[in-house]
Design goal:
Strand order of the largest sheet: 1-4-5-6-7-8-9
Strand content: 5-15%
Radius of gyration: 19 Å
Shape: globular
Number of strands: 9
Distance between the termini: 31 Å
Number of domains: 1
Helix content: 40-55%
Structural class: alpha/beta
Order of helices and strands: HHHHEHEEHHHEHHHEHHEHEHEHEH
Largest sheet: 7 strands, parallel
Oligomer: single chain
Number of helices: 17
CATH architecture: Alpha-Beta Barrel
CATH topology: TIM Barrel
């Protein structure tokens, strides 16, 4: 018997009434799961991402164990670099390392505009496999242009992302060229995921919190509006998430995204009020809470639910990715608590 499709996540994205608050977790398929660690003993990260059967299997692992309300495609923010002609490696416990960081106008102009079905066919195939298996919505995703630019210019993770910000201020025309190339790739990549069957998409802007609101509006907002505007007609809800973005919330709303994801550095009720309740909101449990006792997990989750106030449009998530050392039992505790609600 086919399991009934659970659409509460999609309904919450559209600020419609739901029977209970939906929950999914960033990095819900990952190192906290013993099953994932076993796969990683056999396969390097990039092979897991680029082999459809493996990417689908990893995506499904948490859904087999937990009653989550959405799946997110197992992949990496750097996968578009494969189609853009950017050599890189995924270094364990470090992240992406770019072989030749962008330094010149020639470097930037050499970036390719992708043809997703030709350059990254495994992404669409992974999504098609998953849609046949899933009874919850599937989220596709991409890195947002600023975060992709940060990796490309810095060469990898950075403490303050000063190089990419310096490029933005020193050479605004070259910055505009880089953002345009990245935006075209993001649009094509996410459009291909939606056309393959992704029912929502998330733009991860992990490092955009290094910008001021004025810099965001001047140097980034037009490109983000272009991306959201290009994807909106496809009908899949668009989630826009960043860390350290408390000062940027009003500007992020101006992108037109359907859902704004917030981290734990801002209270959920304050963030939603500042967003004028004009969009859905996603978040925002501190991932470190998941390392505490089950009692603490329950109490902190209920506090966020209280702050959401039962208003339609809240999607429960962590304020960033789940930490690898998170006890599996605490994930179950969190999901049960969210689904039972504050009155339990």
């Amino acid at each position: 018997m086919t399991k009934a499709f659970n659409d509460r996540f999609l309904r919450a994205c559209r600020r419609q009434e739901v029977d209970t608050t939906p929950i999914w977790l960033m990095r819900q398929a990952g190192r906290y799961q013993p099953e994932y660690r076993k796969l990683r003993e056999k396969y390097p990260m990039l092979e897991l991402c680029t082999t459809p059967e493996l990417a689908a299997e990893v995506t499904l692992l948490p859904l087999r164990r937990f009653e989550l309300d959405a799946a997110i495609l197992f992949s990496d923010l750097t996968i578009p670099f494969l189609a853009m002609g950017v050599p890189f490696t995924l270094k364990e416990n470090v992240g992406p390392v770019i072989a030749k960081p962008l330094q010149t106008e020639e470097d930037i102009n050499a970036l390719r505009i992708m043809e997703p079905e030709e350059d990254l066919p495994f992404v669409g195939e992974s999504i098609r496999i998953l849609r046949r298996e899933l009874s919850v919505p599937l989220i596709g995703f991409a890195g947002a242009p600023f975060t992709l630019a940060a990796y490309l210019v810095e060469g990898g993770p950075s403490r303050d992302y000063s190089r990419v910000r310096a490029l933005m201020y020193r050479q605004p025309e070259l910055w505009s060229t880089l953002l345009h190339i990245l935006a075209q790739n993001v649009i094509r990549f996410l459009r291909a995921q939606i056309e393959a069957g992704a029912q929502a998409v998330q733009l991860f802007d992990s490092w955009v919190g290094t910008l001021s609101p004025d810099a965001y509006r001047r140097y980034l907002l037009p490109v983000m509006q272009e991306i959201v505007g290009a994807l909106k007609p496809l009908g899949a809800p668009i989630i826009y998430f960043g860390t350290g973005t408390a000062p940027l919330l009003e500007a992020m709303l101006e992108t037109g995204a359907d859902v704004i994801g917030v981290d734990w550095r801002v209270s959920l009720d304050d963030a939603w009020r500042r967003l004028d309740y004009a969009c859905a909101i996603q978040g925002n449990l501190d991932p470190a809470v998941m390392l505490a006792s089950p009692e603490v997990v329950r109490a902190e989750a209920k506090e966020i639910l209280r702050r959401a106030g039962g208003r339609p449009g809240h999607i429960f998530n962590l304020g960033h990715g789940i930490l690898p050392e998170t006890p599996v039992e605490n994930v179950q505790t969190l999901i049960d608590t969210v689904h039972r609600g504050v009155s339990d």
